[in-house]
User: Which sequence fits this backbone?
């Protein structure tokens, strides 16, 4: 593999190697990876004779919908983005999209600028050869304010209609990779066309649209770019035989990548099985994590609203689910416990999110891919993480104030 393909700043020298149970797209095989900044070889090895603890090697997780963690939140700006990216990297996430909340427009733009600043800082650090201490920030997920005021979920009541001027302000920042829209909001169809044309993934969510309206919206956008279902089954109508609702339309469309918050609070295991059956090559695990992720039970905050975390369940004062405290390694463990084979759960956490964003350089263990790796023990707990071929630097987490 040409050294020129390695991510900038990777130290010179012989390739690194990891041996263990490789979680490949088609199954699990004992073998060895050789890598620098990218994977240079994937070699099968005879299965070991000893029956000691297994070590699994997977592609690093890609979280396309994460608000916060470790005390930081995307809405805090650059410091919050850095904090959440450090927390989630320790849990196996190697790439992510920090996600905004519906807030006053100036605060949304400030948050997007914070994401852009961290992207630039990380690029400089890679060029200087610094060992990574956080997941790579690929861009922002703009969740709101272009959503239905009747399907806010835990979003604050600051919705807006997407005028051409607002859409151009978003695009001018050159950092938004995904957006959540409600099809029925005035101005959304035109805004979706403009955003999709600029390469932004369009997600349907926080919507009161019915099934036929959602299906028509998807059909109009399908030729233009990539489509997603924002936290499928949540903040949208349910599925009935005569009223398929937006969830039914999203599951039925062959190009939609459904996001699933599989924390066992937001989505029932049977609903996950339904999504797998309908979209076997497209279901994505996400965290939708808030700033309290990684901090245990207690009081926290989401978009200026008080949140209580008890037993892994985050709620507003009125009992509304308020995002999650999930991490991607726990989402993977939950999926496997629900009957999803490990190699399929791995695709849901890596390959499918990569494809949803049009990324071809990560998400699988094969030659030429970025060496974004997570090593798990036999109970699927994280042992080590590699980002661009470099092992994650152990940086203590220091929660920041909201």
Assistant:
């Amino acid at each position: 593999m040409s050294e020129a393909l390695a991510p900038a700043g990777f130290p010179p020298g012989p390739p690194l190697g990891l041996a263990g149970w490789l979680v490949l797209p088609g199954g699990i095989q004992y073998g060895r990876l050789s890598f620098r900044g990218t994977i240079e070889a994937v070699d099968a090895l005879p299965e070991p004779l000893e029956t000691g603890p297994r070590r699994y090697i997977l592609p690093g997780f890609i979280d396309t919908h994460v608000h916060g963690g470790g005390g930081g939140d995307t809405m805090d700006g650059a410091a919050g983005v850095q904090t959440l990216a450090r927390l989630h990297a320790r849990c196996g996430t190697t790439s992510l999209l920090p996600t905004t909340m519906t807030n006053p427009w100036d605060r949304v733009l400030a948050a997007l600028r914070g994401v852009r600043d961290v992207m630039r800082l990380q690029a400089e650090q890679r060029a200087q050869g610094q060992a990574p201490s956080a997941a790579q920030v690929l861009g922002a997920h703009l969740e709101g304010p272009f959503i239905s005021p009747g399907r806010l979920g835990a979003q604050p009541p600051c919705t807006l209609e997407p005028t051409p001027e607002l859409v151009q302000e978003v695009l001018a920042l050159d950092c938004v990779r995904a957006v959540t829209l409600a099809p029925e909001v005035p101005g959304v169809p035109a805004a979706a066309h403009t955003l999709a044309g600029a390469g932004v993934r369009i997600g349907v969510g926080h919507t009161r649209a019915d099934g036929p309206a959602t299906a028509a919206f998807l059909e109009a956008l399908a030729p233009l770019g990539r489509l997603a279902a924002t936290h499928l089954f949540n903040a949208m109508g349910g599925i009935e035989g005569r009223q398929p609702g937006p969830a039914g339309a999203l599951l039925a469309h062959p190009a939609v990548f459904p996001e699933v918050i599989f924390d066992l609070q937001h989505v029932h295991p049977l609903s996950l099985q339904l999504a797998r059956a309908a979209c076997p090559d497209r279901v994505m695990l996400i965290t939708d994590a808030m700033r309290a992720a990684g901090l245990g039970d207690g009081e926290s905050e989401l978009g200026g609203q008080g949140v209580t975390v008890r037993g892994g369940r985050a709620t507003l004062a009125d009992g509304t689910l308020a995002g999650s405290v999930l991490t991607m390694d726990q989402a993977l463990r939950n999926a496997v416990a629900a009957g999803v084979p490990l190699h399929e759960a791995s695709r849901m956490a890596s390959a499918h999110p990569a494809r949803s964003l049009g990324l071809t350089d990560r998400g699988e263990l094969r030659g030429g891919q970025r060496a974004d790796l997570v090593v798990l023990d036999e109970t699927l707990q994280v042992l080590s993480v590699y980002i661009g071929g470099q092992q994650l630097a152990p940086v203590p987490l220091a929660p920041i104030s909201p």
Q: What stands out?
A: Confidence is low (pLDDT under 50) at residues 1-6, 395-402. The first strand starts at residue 16 and ends at 24.
